[in-house]
Each structure stands twice: as structure tokens, then as C-alpha cells.
Amino acid sequence: MVKVTSVRFKKAGKIYYFDPAGFDPKKGQHVIVETARGLEYGEVMEDVKAVGKDKVVSPLKKVLRIATDEDTKRYQDNMKNKDRAMAICQEKINKHKLDMNLIDVEYTFDKTKIIFYFAADGRVDFRELVKDLAGVFKMRIELRQIGVRDEAKMIGGIGTCGKGLCCHTWLSDFEPVSIKMAKIQGLSLNPAKISGICGRLMCCLKYENDVYVQMKKHMPEVGDRVRVGGQYAQVVETNILKQTVKVKYIGKDDDDRSNDEYFTVTKKEIEKIERRRDNRKKEEEITEDIKELLD
Predict the structure, then answer these.
(1) Is the model's pTM score more than 0.70?
(2) Is the pLDDT of residue 194 over 90?
(3) Which of 43, 35, 38 is nearest to 5 (CA)?
(4) Which of the 8 DSSP states describes residue 1?
(5) Which of 108, 223, 230, 257 stands the most exposed, by the fewest C-beta atoms within 10 Å?
(6) Cα separation of 55 and 12, whole Å?
């Protein structure tokens, strides 16, 4: 086990582990730590704790000190200077007529470097811009292009639910989201309804996905033939949360001999599930393709 201190540098940002180095910072305190970018001012998210060696990337960077009043004042001054830096950078962007959207700016704690975040549709030649900015700020300049999801995280906004964006308020890491998650949950596949303001699939599709996947196990799909009470029926609708399916009774040969009546039954009442023949055929074809590749 390794003792670590959990530190976050931005609101809803990623949490990093550091070596306490003999200090005992408490949750809510601020510390000065050594990072790959230099000295940084961060907030302690948890008291010192022990974690397994597999949870950390060695060697851990160290906590240099508990933040003093002077450290806090320097951090606040850096934050105040952001507006001026943004205005100067935007002026230079307009001067060079660059097709880029300035999003945010960040000073390192020790003011050895200033980082400008921007969004753009393609590659941008900003070499002349960097020279101009270096002449003004007299420090190292870094321009970092970010994607639409990171842009939304930095700027913030209101989601379709009426609340602040998860990524801006509390979600520290982006997790992969796929259209399959929307299908499993039975949501409309209209892009306008399942996309966030960033234009990508909404992060909240991931939240309940594991529950839906677990509950969908052994559930028939629409079009499957099932046997209920000794009779064959075709599934026309499923409700994963209620664990029920809507069926229409059919003849033994899977033909159209039905009485046009629909019944709702629970998963427990289903005696047998026969997958659709076209699905089985596709699975067989895929299996044959895999065999050919292996051979």
C-alpha cells in the first residue's frame, strides 16, 4: 500500500495522486505540488489515504508544502490576470486573421508559462501569433487545441435536463459513449434528442447503461419467437425496466395465423426463446468468416 494525497487543479477536473512527503493535508486545504508543468496550486479532495500500488503511477510527484497566504494571493492574482490575457490574445488572433475560437487561458502557478486553449475546425498555423504573444508576456507560450467536449467542459452551459452540464459541474473524466447505449435504453435515435450541446452523445447515457445491460440479459428481442403457456408468440415490444414483453400469439410454423390480440407477459412466464432466423444466419456467417481468417 502507498500513502497518497488526492489533488484537483480545476473545478470538475481530474484528480491526481501525490506523495504527501511527510505532510498531512486535510480535505479542502490547498497545497503546492510539483507536476510535469512545474509548480501547481491545487485543492486537496480527500485526507491522506493508502491505496494499492496498482492504483498509482510511480514515481509519485511530491507535495512541496501546504499553501500559505502568499501562495493563495499569487494564485488569485493569476486568475485576475486571465481576462487581460484573453483580451490580448483575441486581439492578436484578429490581427493575424486566424480561424480559431479562443476558449480559455491559464497561467502556471510560478508564471513560467501561459497556456491558451482554443477550438478550430482544422489545423491552424499560429507561429506568428506565438511570437507576438511571447513579446507581450515575456514567458513561455503554449497554444493547445481542444475538442468540442473539452470546450463545453471549460465554458459550461445548461443541458436539456435544465441543469448545469455534468462535465462542467462535477464530471471529472469523459467516458466512452456509444449509440448502442441509446438503443439498449429504448431511446429515440434522433441526434437532436440524444446529443449534448457539444454535439456529441450525452454523457448521461452512460450512467444507467450497466443496469440496462444487466436487466436485458435473457430478455427476448423484438421479433423473437417465444413460448408462453405452451403456445408460440412473437415479441412486438419489450420493457426492460418492468421485465415484461408484449407478444402476439402465432401458429406453430411462425406464419401469420394470429388473432391480432396482444398480451403482456413477464420474463418469468416465458418458457422458451427462439431467436430470429436472420440473426442466427448472420451469426453463422460471422462464425464462418472468423474460421476462414483463423485458417
Answers:
(1) yes
(2) yes
(3) 43
(4) -
(5) 230
(6) 20
